[in-house]
Specification:
Elements: E1 7-16, E2 20-30, E3 35-39, H1 46-53, E4 61-66, E5 69-70, H2 75-81, E6 82-85, H3 97-107, H4 112-125, H5 141-152, E7 159-163, H6 171-188, E8 191-196, H7 199-205, E9 208-211
Parallel strand pairs: 3-8, 3-9, 6-7, 7-8
Antiparallel strand pairs: 1-2, 1-4, 4-5
Helix pairs in contact: 3-4
């Protein structure tokens, strides 16, 4: 596996039916360990860019590598190296926080003992220890976002994608998530690709920002 946790894109394009270019030839470089803020209004192309970089949507043109792997031809290797908390948290309201962590650990191939230890560690890290054995249906929006972040970290990824992680959260929940994201970069050396429509969020967290509008940086 390449010893890198950088993100590179060159001439990246995503065109939808009718000739709509959601992403219109962008170039990107995100350095290892950097928090890169991807800032822009709704519909600017932020989420489409993230979907391409996380291999969930193939590019129409251009190239991109994530953790040293090509997003078009080496999808499994990219997905093994990254974590992602996208706009819609994929949670089951009938499972507890701890059950979510156990399930995710199993999907990532961790042993039962490792799943339990990693789940406990991450739930504590995002402030959900007391709520760990409650069903997620009773969680607040902020708690769900923090659980989603913990799930994205189960397999110790070198790069994490956060797509508008604090949209709709109250100020206290947003500040708590900011603390979590800052620690990821500072203490773990994780590269963070953060999309946001909030200028103050980019200002608070990002080492560097790219501003996208109408598919162009």
């Amino acid at each position: 596996m390449p010893d890198t946790n950088s993100i590179e894109a060159s001439g990246l394009v995503r065109e939808f039916k009718g000739g709509i270019r959601a992403v219109d030839g962008i170039d990107l470089h995100v350095a290892p360990g950097e928090i890169y803020g991807f800032l822009g209004p709704n519909g600017a192309g932020k989420s489409t860019t993230v979907l391409m970089l996380t291999t969930l949507l193939p590019p129409t043109a251009g190239t991109a590598t994530v953790a040293g792997f090509d997003v078009s031809s080496q999808g499994p290797q990219v997905r093994a190296a990254i974590g992602a908390a996208l706009q819609e948290a994929a949670l089951d309201n009938f499972l507890t926080g701890r059950e979510h962590m156990d399930l995710q650990g199993g999907l990532q191939g961790l042993s039962r003992a490792d799943r339990r230890a990693r789940g406990t560690e991450l739930l504590e890290r995002v402030g959900l220890t007391e709520a760990a054995d409650r069903k997620v249906g009773g969680y607040s929006g902020g708690m769900k976002r923090r659980l989603d972040l913990a799930l994205a970290l189960v397999h110790r990824p070198s790069i994490i994608f956060l797509d508008e992680p604090t949209t709709g959260l109250d100020p206290q929940s947003r500040a708590a998530l900011w603390d979590d994201v800052g620690r990821l970069s500072r203490e773990d050396g994780v590269t963070v690709f953060l999309t946001t429509q909030y200028l103050e969020e980019a200002d608070e967290l990002a080492d560097r920002i790219g501003i996208i509008d109408q598919g162009r940086i």
